[in-house]
């Protein structure tokens, strides 16, 4: 059984503040170690419950957070950026299941540690009219390749978003968010056991999970926080303006929609 893990950082158990997740801050070095430890706990449980191969894709910021020297000896790691498929680099139809580790709620969620959708510039991203978190967006790319998302870890609203947007992945709540920058956290041994139980539940009968597949053409809608970002996104051929801050693109399939979403965000990344 081949497992693909996309690992973000905001939803790692002890993480509550921007200083914890921003390279260059004093606290970051501590928290990347905690991220590595938590990813390793997931990898360990995956092998315990039937995995034969685990690929981890570092999916936060510059995507080189996980300490390779401390990586679980049986895992392989995709590190660094940019990557063509970003948070889902390396996914293909050879995998049996996808885990999202350390994920966070979509932009505009309350009681959600550092809620956002890909970048701070996105107010709302929709697929065929439905608002999506990163779990929903990335899970549909897994679905494009026929692979189900079977596990998500993060705070209670990260798990809620993923379960709303995907076909019932197992959710492991590793902290209870109070506000965007505060949460009730617990010792790692407790988190580790919750993760172990979640992985067990997900892998016991992995064939019961269905991939989340967008059939046919896909309508991508992006509402930005600033109109200038919509203006820049309109440079993409086929992109249409809905209102001052919102653009719409009709893609032939989900892979195209995902790439256009990434391109639209990248084009505006230097603009303030
Ligand atoms: Zn992140």
From TrEMBL:
Q: Which InterPro entries match?
A: DppA_N, Peptidase_M55, Peptidase_M55_sf
> So where does Zn(2+) 1 get bound?
8, 10
Signal sequence annotation: none
Which Gene Ontology MF annotations are present?
metal ion binding
Database matches in Gene3D superfamilies: Dipeptide transport protein (3.40.50.10780)
Keywords for the protein's UniProt record, in alphabetical order: Metal-binding, Zinc
Q: Which SUPFAM superfamilies match?
A: Dipeptide transport protein
| Active site residues per record | 116 (nucleophile)
Q: Which residues bind Zn(2+) 2?
A: 8, 60, 104, 134
The name this protein goes by in its record = D-aminopeptidase DppA
- Name the source organism: Thermosediminibacter oceani (strain ATCC BAA-1034 / DSM 16646 / JW/IW-1228P)
Specify the taxonomic lineage.
Bacteria, Bacillati, Bacillota, Clostridia, Thermosediminibacterales
